[in-house]
Amino acid sequence: MHSLLFDDIPYLPEAQKEHDKFAEVLRRNNVKVLYLDELIAEVLKDKKLKNTFLDQIIMDSGFKGEATYDTLKSYLYNLAPSKMVSVIMEGVRKETLGDTLKNLRSFPEVDSTPFIMAPMPNLYFTRDLASIIGEGASISNMTFKARRRETLFIEYILANHPFFSEYTVPLWHRRGDITRIEGGDVLVLNEHVVAVGISQRTSVEAIESLANRLFKSDSGYDTVVAIKIPNNHAMMHLDTVFTMVNYDQFTVYPDIMQKHQKMDIWTLHSSPEGIRYKKHSNLQQVLKETLGLNEVDLIYTGNGDPIAAPREQWNDGSNTLTIAPGEVVTYNRNYVSNKLLREHGIKVHEIPSSELSRGRGGPRCMSMPLLRDDL
Ligand SMILES: NC(=O)NCCC[C@H](N)C(=O)O
To answer: What positions constitute the catalytic site (predicted)?
Structure first.
């Protein structure tokens, strides 16, 4: 469980029902929902792409041109694209390949787990694979082994899906870059400001490189707000403790602030001499300055209550998915936070969450906006 970054085991049929409900709520509210597995299967109908994709995913699964590599490749290549995608996502158990796994070098690895190719259960958190910033994308380089292969799906989709055929998506961060960044740390605040968490999953070096690429292109982005958050599994990304719910309203988990609401925040600004840095300690003040607002409403997870706040943060009470200014999707179990959001004038769509929440991600983590309206 822990190597797969789970704290508990979801009951699959219920998790699937809850996820369908999530997609239904989005559709009912004018969001066009696309599924990662369907998009990648469409791309891999092309035989050449299927071939290079398989080479890469098998290599990334730890096999480099040995007997096991060949066995896996021919097994997967002979499946129809949508079946092949499901099998790769679900993982391949060693008995599926049976007696063909006699290679000495692959033997110890194969024997320590029932899988020859590990499953990717965190793929329902599509947010983390990439972020769309303006007209380009930042493809993640994930911190933990359990999630590193996931980004290959989005890399192939952005480069090859007919949806993008007229357009080469500029990349502000590439899958192969050595610096570490994950989509859950990236919050697009408007058309020229983006906030990024300095976290368990995203390094300062990645933020600087992202800022450089955004500033040196015609992305329109001139400000990056780097926000330091605690380094632990409950708060692995910025969006587990801080999200934007309206032009001037944000949810925040109060425990990320020190005494007198102090935090470590840097703004990175574009300037002719390169990046200009400024250190700040007050979140509200930084948001006002960078977004040009007179007032900012910070809505505390669990109303800041010493019991409700950590409980609801653990169950992704700060991880709201904003589908329009002042309109969000949240887990129903976070009733203290949901009530407070409504008291602050936010329209809240609640979704069932008994099983989905066990993966430690909420509605924002479970989605990745590809196209946003210009607001
Ligand atoms: N943006 C997010 O906070 N995503 C949640 C990811 C949860 C997943 N189990 C992980 O640890 O990566």
So the answer is: 365 (amidino-cysteine intermediate)
